[in-house]
Design a protein that fits this description.
The chain is an alpha/beta fold. It contains 13 helices and 17 strands. Helix content is 35%, strand content 25%. Helix 6 packs parallel to helix 8.
């Protein structure tokens, strides 16, 4: 199977041009032995490389490329398959764009093409090359921003609560902060439902009769609010996850929720209701009316796990939430993944136009946080900063730049 891989990276400080040509010569021989062909473009700062060859060989080579200290900010831009090689005669050629006038570079690239069909500007690979040649597609992260420059310091901000559940509680809750790391502030606390024994939410919902599912989901929020009050959250906000249909199926659902808030000494403006996009909303008009009622009461709305389901854009077009939480599937290793970067940047642009706040979920690496921060996201949730804690709130790990 003939695989095509395109990546972009940045030259590490101290690497000389003669060293690059030696690298290209060595790569030409090595790649030929692996039946890999391609072309490497360099503009004096950034690289763009196209690799073509057997899938397993390309994967193995790319793993070695990612470990090479002579470049950094390595981002995979495209993976695809083809019936023929575009650059079949080159084990590897280094094309220094500074040696060519910009208006002639693309013609030079086309002349290196060896595929049985003529390379054209409709080809995705050529489009990536053209974008690179014209100065597009660069990385927004500062050149000197290295994950090793940061360290994390834990700080507890909430009192430790008794994590023993009440005998009358049908379930438990784990709490996880949503943070603004550089400001070192907690934006809100998400209450994550757990089974009576502390197991995952799926265990709790699976134990319920289907006809009681939505009522139990709504009623459980009383215990989340009770626990939050017990922990002394003050005027901090709390996020409650609700199955979208709970607001439709349960009569007077919004009034029940408002009563739960009042009974625990909180106010509606402190509460954010999160609904996921992956549950089918079959009675959308009724759901939309419930959303309006929530808003009128002062409760904020958020779409959770955006990007994980199939209704994301249509749901967003029907009602605009106060916050949108990008699913971890789009966040994991985003600093290395060009398609994820493009999708997240489009979400940021869309939300910015509609004045919707964004939270990045599932952040586990400093590199992920730094890329997302550079892209314009300020609020984060994930193991990097704090794990969910059953019946309490774990200390938050705040990032500090190391002193040089």
């Amino acid at each position: 199977m003939l695989s095509t891989l395109i990546y972009r990276s940045r030259l590490s400080p101290g690497v000389t041009l003669p060293g690059l040509y030696q690298l290209a010569d060595k790569a030409r021989v090595n790649n030929a032995s692996l039946e890999i062909t391609g072309i490497l473009l360099f503009d004096g700062d950034y690289f763009l490389q196209i690799l073509e060859g057997p899938l397993s060989a390309v994967n193995t080579l790319f793993e070695h490329i990612c470990e090479d200290p002579r470049h950094y900010h390595i981002v995979q831009l495209m993976r695809d398959y083809a019936s023929a090689r575009r650059f079949g005669n080159l084990g590897m050629e280094l094309l220094d764009l500074r040696d060519h006038a910009q208006e002639t570079v693309m013609q030079t690239v086309l002349q290196h093409g060896t595929s049985k069909y003529q390379l054209s500007y409709d080809d995705r690979v050529l489009k990536f090359i053209e974008t690179f040649v014209t100065g597009g597609g660069r990385d927004d992260r500062p050149a000197n921003d290295d994950a090793r420059q940061w360290h994390l310091v834990s700080e507890a901000r909430f009192q430790t609560a008794d994590d023993t559940p009440s005998d009358s509680a049908p379930c438990q809750f784990a709490f996880q902060p949503i943070v603004e790391p550089l400001k070192r502030t907690i934006s809100s606390l998400e209450a994550l439902i757990r089974s009576p024994s502390g197991g995952p939410a799926q265990d709790y919902f699976a134990s319920l009769p289907p006809e009681k599912l939505y009522e139990a989901d709504l009623q459980s929020k009383y215990w989340a609010l009770k626990q939050a009050k017990k922990m002394g959250i003050g005027r901090n906000k709390i996020s409650l996850n609700l199955l979208p249909m709970s607001l439709v199926v349960v009569p007077d659902a919004v009034d029940i929720l408002l009563d739960q808030i009042a009974r625990n000494g909180l106010i509606p403006d402190q509460v954010i209701v999160e609904v996921t996009e992956d549950e089918v909303i079959s009675r959308f008009d009724e759901f939309e009316r419930a959303m309006r009622q929530l808003r009128c009461s002062g409760i904020s709305l958020a779409i959770d796990d955006f990007g994980a389901g199939f209704a994301g854009l249509s749901l967003l077009s029907r009602f605009q939430p106060d916050k949108l939480k990008i699913d971890r599937s789009l966040i994991t290793d985003i600093h290395h993944d060009g398609p994820k970067q493009a999708i997240v940047q489009a979400i940021i642009t869309c939300c910015s136009a509609m004045e919707i706040g964004i939270v990045a979920e599932g952040v586990e690496k400093i590199e992920e946080w730094r890329w997302l921060e550079a892209a314009g996201i300020q609020r984060f949730q994930g193991y990097l900063f704090a794990r969910p804690k059953l019946g309490g709130i774990a200390p938050v790990a705040w990032p500090y730049r190391r002193e040089s």
